[in-house]
Specification:
10-stranded mixed beta sheet, 22 strands
Length: 867
């Protein structure tokens, strides 16, 4: 009697047969598990390493400022000490405030006596009021030997470093460092450590000193980074508190505590999204390999399933059996992938944290913070993805009828009748997926759906495409006399197209992924390189020793600017100021431009707006230009108003243009020097661009600059060519993690090729035994196998080209557009496609070695038993 249940639990004998099959096909089983494991490992490693790097930054802030609720912050100039004095002296506020804490919090670059540079977080705190040197201070920090060093703590440029850092770098009392940002020297007066191991680890890269010393070190006397505040009030007192803060001076804003830290973390969102997309692509390839492996397992067990159906096993029992097989493969792969991912995360942590350090903020994690949520997500992805990938093979197995025992190819001969239907269905899915990419998509999930439709669609076209390629090869063979071995290889592929097509589809997807990532990176690089060539038109640049935003850049000395202006070989100087502003929960880079209209036209590459109409408004009215990423992320259009906190209060500016920019993912607002001076007091210049009368005089100007150059001025004098090269080095550093992920994708592709080729050849052991029985030698059999795998590799490589192009377009126009907000023209480099085809061919041929050896050693009598 047939079971009425949809999921009937298979009888015990079915589990025995399934276990026996996978034990006999141990190599293919391992490769299938490995395919899932590598995909899951990439997902876990990227998420764990990325989260650990950012969590280190957040926890270091929480460990010190966990007891405050609000922060008072200023605009480009920071916040004046006078505001702190007003708060402290206010008779109305004192009863309402529990904590009033002035803070200097800046990232600085230090150089030790050996010339080694490192970034650190400098914290200036109020030692007198906070009673920091006592063991029961509010920070939970133990200042070691504070009784002996308390007097020196107030000495000029004396600092405390963490005991962990001292041990790691073998630091001692009185060791000196040079502050690269300001050219000041500091010396170690003592060490500190946190109350617990977590705090000690989080604060190992922190330097603590008195607030006055920190101001002296950073050349910011009279200026604070922020004021931390905690209040104790009932409802009536809250009203009074709100009223008082509503009377804050212009240029000062009150924000919730940690909002600034979260804003700094949020600028890595684009970086996170890009890594997530690439890790999911690796997982998708792994799931495709499961589908390929399960399809072959069904084909090889067709007779077994037919026999089971003949003795009374139901369709639903077989369906459920195959479904559970896929689930177990996914579960085992996910478990191994999680373990492998944790190990891989330690390797990726260095790459990710160095990128975040250079591009975004200081983060120095030493260990991986295991997040159980990521582990659960990996398990769910591995198991659910595996189940989805075996649904079709499970359904196919459940449809096998007992009568098919007499026709080993009967099931698949009917499949061939539908290959044209599948071909046009595949084209339809590809078209739908491609049309989705043309729409203004703002949702990454839709982007992944589009990519999935394209991949499935092209997979369905593989049988027909392969037939066309084989017909071309056959026609060529006709003209050269149809060599027996080659002809037999081609005809065997034709006759086994139903199974080989699945293999080719899996290989094509694997290679297409690597092509897509490779073309995406090269398109990025070419676009950035072209943008730099068009933007860096000056002959010489003078700037601080950093090319990244998001840091407090030192201003260039006025005396040096005057000297440069008087050099006769210099025709014109463009001056730039770079500032970081907190706005509406995110960090905005504000660029102040003092330039001529001619230079402005040459350097700025507008995406929207007309240069001829912009210049006068830009320098004469309250107008700004914004970068493309900022416009995309905040949905800003031409002529929209954009509010910025100035030293005179909140001011609305009109957006007059949107320009291309690839230097910052968080976005830039550009304002003219004339307009800036109307609303801000901090008029520092952070970089100079020098345009010479004659480029041949560059060496003369260089020498004049070096003659005047004072070591107290921490600046770089660099030519446009060297600056271009340095910028590209930054690009390569930023995308180093992407190169690693692409290499992992190649590994996944090779695993897929090895498993698929082995499965194909070993499943046809009976055919090779027949050839051997009629006189074919082992060398001839190996040649046939080599020819077949070579042809499979070529076809897979050719099919991967259009799929790779579409994946490239999806990565650039959807994934990375949503991640970074950049416009990247797609550039298809032949070298990437040649590399993909070569990987397909080489991997296919290498993958044939093991099955060739095994086939040549087969016992003909055992293999042909029953014929």
């Amino acid at each position: 009697m047939k079971s009425k249940h949809i999921f009937s639990f298979p009888p015990y004998i079915l589990w025995i047969n399934a276990f026996r099959y996978y034990f006999r096909s141990f190599t293919q089983s391992i490769l299938a598990v490995l395919g899932v494991a590598v995909g899951i490992a990439v997902f876990v490693a990227v998420d764990l390493a990325n989260d650990s790097a950012k969590q280190s930054f957040r926890n270091s802030a929480v460990s010190i400022f966990g007891d405050t609720e609000f922060q008072l912050m200023g605009s480009t100039s920071g916040i004046s000490e006078n505001v702190y004095s007003d708060v402290v002296k206010s008779a109305e506020l004192q009863p309402l405030l529990n904590i009033i804490r002035p803070i200097i919090d800046k990232q600085i670059t230090l150089t030790d006596s050996n010339g080694v540079e490192d970034k650190y977080r400098l914290l200036g705190i109020n030692v007198i009021n906070e009673n920091v040197l006592s063991r029961n201070n509010k920070y939970g920090i133990d200042f070691l030997n504070s009784s002996q060093t308390s007097f020196n703590f107030f000495a000029e440029n004396q600092v405390f470093v963490s005991s962990i850092l001292a041990s790691k770098k073998q630091l001692s009392i009185a060791d000196e460092f040079l502050v690269e940002d300001t050219n000041n020297k500091i010396s170690i007066v003592g060490f500190f450590q946190g109350d617990n191991s977590l705090q000690r680890e989080l604060m190992q890269n922190v330097i603590i000193t008195d607030i006055s010393v920190a101001q002296n070190i950073t050349n910011s006397n009279g200026i604070l980074t922020r004021i931390d505040i905690s209040s104790v009030y009932d409802q009536n007192e809250k009203i009074a508190l709100d009223k008082w803060f509503s009377l804050l001076p212009s240029g000062v804003q009150l924000i919730p505590s940690y909002t600034y830290s979260e804003a700094r973390k949020s600028i890595t969102k684009s970086f996170d999204t890009n890594l997530l997309a690439l890790s999911l692509l690796a997982l998708l390839v792994g799931l495709y390999l499961i589908y390929n492996m399960m399809t072959f397992s069904i084909h090889r067990r067709k007779n077994l399933f037919g026999t089971l159906r003949a003795i009374g096993v139901t369709k639903n029992e077989i369906f459920f059996l195959v479904l559970v097989e896929g689930l177990l493969i996914g579960l085992i792969g996910a478990i191994f992938g999680i373990m492998l991912g944790i190990l891989l995360a330690y390797f990726l942590l260095g790459l990710i944290s160095s990128t975040i350090n250079y591009q975004f903020f200081s983060s120095s994690p030493n260990s991986i913070a295991l997040d159980i949520t990521i582990i659960y997500q990996a398990l769910i992805l591995g198991i659910s993805g595996s189940i989805v990938s075996v649904l079709i093979p499970a359904w196919s197995a459940s449809r096998i009828q007992p009568r098919e025992l007499i026709d080993i190819y009967g099931k698949y001969s009917t499949y061939n009748n539908y290959h044209m239907v599948l071909f046009f269905l595949g084209l339809l899915l590809c078209s739908i997926g491609y049309l989705i990419t043309l729409a203004p998509i703002t949702n990454l999930i839709i982007g992944f759906i589009a990519m999935f439709l394209v991949i499935v669609g092209l997979s369905l076209t593989v049988p027909t495409t392969t037939q066309i390629v084989l017909l071309i090869i056959s026609s060529i063979l006709e003209k050269i006399g149809r060599p027996t071995i080659v002809t037999l290889s081609v005809e065997t592929i034709k006759n086994s197209l139903n199974t080989i097509a699945i293999c080719i589809a899996a290989l094509s997807v694997s290679i297409a992924m690597t092509i897509g990532i490779g073309c995406m990176i090269q398109s990025f690089r070419a676009t950035v390189e072209e943008w730099l060539n068009q933007s860096l038109v000056a002959d010489i640049y003078i700037a601080p020793p950093t090319l990244s935003f998001g840091q407090d850049l030192k201003g260039i000395d006025d005396e040096f600017i005057k000297y440069v202006s008087d050099i006769p070989e210099i025709e014109y100087i463009s001056q730039l100021g770079s500032f970081e502003i907190f706005k509406d929960g995110y960090l905005l880079n504000l660029i102040v431009v003092d330039s001529a209209e001619k230079i402005f036209d040459e350097v700025i590459q507008l995406k929207e707006g007309e240069k001829k109409d912009i210049w006068n408004d830009f320098v004469q009215t309250d107008s700004i230009l914004i970068s493309e990423p900022l416009a995309f992320q905040k949905n800003i259009q031409i002529n929209d108003t954009f509010d910025i906190l100035t030293d005179t209060g909140l001011k609305s500016f009109t957006v007059r243009g949107i320009y291309y920019d690839y230097s910052s993912t968080s976005g830039i607002a550009m304002v003219s020097k004339q307009v800036y001076d109307n609303y801000w007091n901090n008029s520092k210049v952070t970089s100079l661009a020098l345009y010479l009368n004659d480029s041949q005089n560059s060496e003369v100007v260089f020498n004049k600059l070096l003659d005047k150059f004072d070591t107290d001025w921490d600046l770089q004098i660099i030519s446009s060519k060297k600056l271009n090269n340095a910028s590209m080095e930054i690009f390569d550093k930023t995308f180093e993690i992407t190169f690693v992920l692409r290499s992992i994708s190649l590994i996944v592709a090779f695993i897929g090729i090895l498993g698929a080729i082995s499965a194909i050849i070993l499943s046809r052991a009976r055919e090779f035994s027949i050839l051997k029985s009629i006189g074919f030698t082992n060398n001839q059999l190996r040649t046939i196998i080599g020819n077949q795998t070579f042809i499979i590799g070529v076809i897979s490589g050719l099919i991967s080209i259009p799929l790779g192009i579409i994946i490239t377009n999806l990565l650039i126009q959807i994934i990375n557009k949503q991640s970074f907000g950049w416009s990247i023209p797609m550039q298809l480099l032949p070298s990437v496609f040649v590399e993909g085809i070569m990987v397909a061919i080489l991997s296919s041929v290498l993958a044939s070695i093991y099955p060739s050896i095994k086939i040549s050693r087969n016992n003909i009598r055992k293999t042909l038993m029953g014929e």
